Amino acid sequence: LEDLLAEGVSGRRVLVRSDLNVPLDGSTITDDGRVRAALPTIRSLAEAGARVIVAAHLGRPKGTPEAKYSLRPVADRLGELLGKEVRLAGDVVGEQARAVVAGLADGDVALLENVRFDPRETSKVEDERAELARDLAALTGEGGAFVSDGFGVVHRKQASVYDVARALPAYAGGLVLAELEVLSKLTGAPQRPYVVVLGGSKVSDKLAVIEALLPKVDRLLIGGGMAFTFLAAQGHSVGSSLLEQDYVETARKLLAEHADKIVVPSDVVVADKFAADAATDTVAAEKIPDGWMGLDIGPRTTEHFAAEVAAAKTVFWNGPAGVFEMAPFAAGTKGVAQAIADSEAFSVVGGGDSAAAVRVLGLPEEKFSHISTGGGASLEYLEGKELPGVAVLEGGA
Ligand code: 3PG
C-alpha cells in the first residue's frame, strides 16, 4: 500500500477488496469490528485523493442477489465511520456499478453490492472468475490499481480476491500486512508455554489446524461443540450433543498420541433443548444424561482453562467455548476470554466468532495483543497453507 501511495493515487480509481462480512441481526450489524478494521486503508487512499471502489461479500448467497445479503447496512456503517457518504451500487459490475463509479470525485468512496451475487465470484472455473476479474478491473479504468485488504478472505481463490490481482497492478493493504506480521510470530518461535484454546462446532473444520499445531504447542484446550467428539472418543456418552461420528476414531488417536497436551472438558453445561429458555444443569463430562445436549464448558473446566492461560506466555484462541449468543451458555466463553484479557501473554484472538465474542461480551479489546479479522484465513495460515490471495500479490506480501 505504501508503494501505491508513494506512486500517487490522486484522481485514480483504486479497487479495494475488504472483508466486511459482519454478523447481522436482520439489518442491524451486531459487531462492526471488520468494518472498523477496514477503515485505515480506505481512509488513507481517500485522503490521498483516490476514487475508492470497495468490493466485499456478505454471507454465502448462491450467485444471485438476495435482499438479506445486501451490503446496504455495511455501506451505511462505513459511511458513518468515515464521516462521509458511501454510495452503494445496486449491482456488482453492471450498469449501476458503472454509474456510481463514474460519479466518484477525488477522495470519494463507493461500495459495490455483494460480490457473491455474481456467480463468477466463487466459480471453480478459472475463466469465469477471470472474466469477472476483468469486469472489476474495467471499473477502475486508466491508471487503476487493486489493493488486497480483506485478510479474512485471502484463503479464498475467488475472483475479487485472487483473479483480480492478476488483472490490475496489485498491492497488499495495511490490514493484510499487519495480520500477517502478527500471525508470523505464532508460527515462528512463540514464547513458551504456548497455549491454544480451540472451540467452535466442528472437529472436521479444525482437524488440519489441530494436527499442524500439536507439535508446536504446550497445551491444546478443547471446548465448544467439537469437544463432544473428543469426549465420545474417551468412551463417554454425550447424549444429544453435537457429535461427528466419522471423527471419533481420529480424535481417539490424537488423544492417545498427545495425552500430555490435549485438555478436554471435565464438566459441561447441558440443556434439554437448543434454546435460551431451555432447562439447564451442570454435569461431569462423563455423565451427560440421554436426551440432553452440552452447550457450554462447565465452571470447573473454565477454571482449568483459565489457569492454563494464566501460566502461558503465548496464547492463541479460536472458536467459542459454548453457545455464547445465549446467556445461559456464555459463561465458558466469557471465562476463557477474561482469562486471556487478564494474562500478560502475547495473545491473539483469531476468528470471526471469537473476535465477535470479545466485543459482544464487552471485554476491552486493548487487553488482547491482537484480534484477527480472519477466521478461516488465520487458521489456514497457522496450518502453514499458502493463502492464494497473498501468494498472488507480487512477491507475496
Ligand atoms: C469469514 O467470515 O471468515 C470470511 O469473511 C470468509 O467468509 P467465507 O468463509 O464465507 O468465505
From TrEMBL:
EC number: 2.7.2.3
Chain positions recorded as substrate binding sites: 19-21, 34, 57-60, 116, 156
UniProt keyword Transferase present: yes
Subcellular location: Cytoplasm
Domain of life of the source: Bacteria
Membership in a protein family: Belongs to the phosphoglycerate kinase family.
Keywords: ATP-binding, Cytoplasm, Glycolysis, Kinase, Nucleotide-binding, Transferase
A GO MF term: kinase activity
Pathway named in the protein's UniProt entry: Carbohydrate degradation; glycolysis; pyruvate from D-glyceraldehyde 3-phosphate: step 2/5
Residues annotated to bind ATP: 206, 294, 325, 351-354
HAMAP family in UniProt: Phosphoglyc_kinase
Name of the protein in its database record: Phosphoglycerate kinase
InterPro entries referenced in this protein's UniProt entry, alphabetically: Phosphoglycerate_kinase (IPR001576), Phosphoglycerate_kinase_CS (IPR015911), Phosphoglycerate_kinase_N (IPR015824), Phosphoglycerate_kinase_sf (IPR036043)
Record carries keyword Transferase: yes
Enzyme class: transferase
Subunit structure: Monomer.
Catalytically driven reaction(s): (2R)-3-phosphoglycerate + ATP = (2R)-3-phospho-glyceroyl phosphate + ADP
Alphabetical list of PROSITE patterns matching this protein: PGLYCERATE_KINASE (PS00111)
Pfam families: PGK
Gene: pgk
